Amino acid sequence: MPSSPPSARGALTSARWFPFVILGIGLTAISFGAILARIAQAEGVSSLAVASWRLGFAALIITPVALLQSRHELTRLTRRQLVMALTAGFFLALHFATWITSLEYTSVASSTALMTTNPLWIGLASFFIYRETPSRMMVGGIALSFTGSLLIFWSDSQSAGASANALLGNLLALVGSWCFSAYLLIGRRLRAGLGLPAYIWLAYGAAALFLFAASSAGGVELFALSGTAWLVLVAMALGPQLLGHSTYNWALRYVSATFIAVVTLGEPVGSALLAFIIFNEGFAPLQFVGFSLLLVGIYFAAKGEKT
Predict the structure, then answer these.
(1) One Pfam annotation, family name (predicted)?
(2) Dihedral sign for Cα atoms in the order 91, 93, 94, 96
(3) What is the Cα–Cα distance from 221 to 2, expressed in whole angstroms?
(4) How far apart are CA 246 and CA 207, in angstroms?
(5) Count of CA atoms in the C-beta half-sphere (13 A) of 71
(6) Kind and range of the H or E element at 161?
(7) Which of 42, 75, 182, 280 is most buried by a 10 A CB count?
(8) pLDDT tens string 84-138
């Protein structure tokens, strides 16, 4: 059999790696999420309000695109799809509410490291619920990345400046990880039958509704905010949410939820470096070991991903 021409082989290689390139761009954008949340909190914005406006602005910005490109999909939604969208939005709302709140009590490094333990929970759920067996290289990537996250958390917890409320913050970050894992697993099933604009509009919109309802019920201030706070909230919607999380949602059609969860493990690297530059949150040599393991784990998971 004649071999494929070089141009065809190049196109296949590019197509195979294109989702990984897009995920890299999304990871860079999403690494700013914790930094912007901290700035908003410093401006006096409550964590629940930060989560509400992040999802609210994102849903509002994507609305024209969803209505123009996905109007027919949205009008033909089945009851099952609508229930799945609401459920995904509910878990996404819980994810942001718990994770952003965790930043009030623990460091950026610990919060993001614990929040990105998704591969453990998704890998277990995918095996027991969907009977999906990951490749050996994928398992190795998960193990390395998870070990890196634990090293970052351990190093941070041993620092002299650890807060007395760090345990609460770490627990909230862990709950946020469980909720994000559920969101990815549900989203993978829903995304298979919906275009990206329709899916993210439904998921972000549902999450925003849940968060605004919770904020109103809890008497959270949503409107009397500073000009800087409004700019930061819009930036969170445009960068970490629309550019960051939306690339994860786009990639659900091409790669597994397990691999996407592994990619999110790179967030502590970017977030911790940004926290060091902006907030002077130092990190110990052990954290560098953890960062290295995270990146190596992501590489092996990419090599082991079945496309």
Answers:
(1) EamA
(2) positive
(3) 68
(4) 14
(5) 5
(6) none
(7) 182
(8) 999 999 999 999 999 999 999 988 888 888 888 887 788 778 778 877 777 888 8
Which token pair is 119?
Answer: 């591969």
How is residue 176 written in tokens?
């946020």
Residue the block writes with tokens 């912007």? 36
For the chain, give every domain's residue range.
43-304
How far is it, in rounded angstroms, from Cα 120 to Cα 303? 18
Other Cβ atoms less than 10 A from the Cβ of 80: the count is 11
Q: Quick one: how far is CA 198 from the chain centroid?
A: 19
Look up tokens 């690339």; give the residue.
247
pTM of the model: 0.83
The radius of gyration computed from the CA coordinates of the chain, to the nearest angstrom, equals: 19
d(CA 48, CA 46): 5
- Tokens 């899916």 sit at which residue? 199
Q: Where are the alpha helices (DSSP H) in the chain?
A: 6-30, 33-42, 47-69, 71-75, 79-102, 108-115, 118-129, 136-157, 166-191, 196-217, 227-236, 246-251, 257-263, 267-279, 285-304
